[in-house]
Amino acid sequence: MIKFNDELLLEIGLSDLPEAEKTKMKAHIYETLETRVGFRLAGNMTDQQLNEFESFINQKDEQGAFKWLEQNFPNYKDVVSEEFEKLKQEIKQIAPQILESSK
Prior knowledge:
By secondary structure, this protein is mostly helical.
């Protein structure tokens, strides 16, 4: 399970951010990951599947959405892991600039 915590920030080189910035960064990472995974999965969905999945999102039924993904895209957790690893590597490369701009 992916955790958006201070250990993640340590891993990607951002543990020295001020506390308020840490909270913002964790939220940003989560939102970015969610968007990337969504785009990648949506690219493999039929129009009908996309409509079904969007109905869960529009109803804010997170549990229903995950259940639907497990049934229709059993490899979605692999997609999440792959995108998360890519995102971490991208952030590691720019961590020094992020830290500098937070001063």
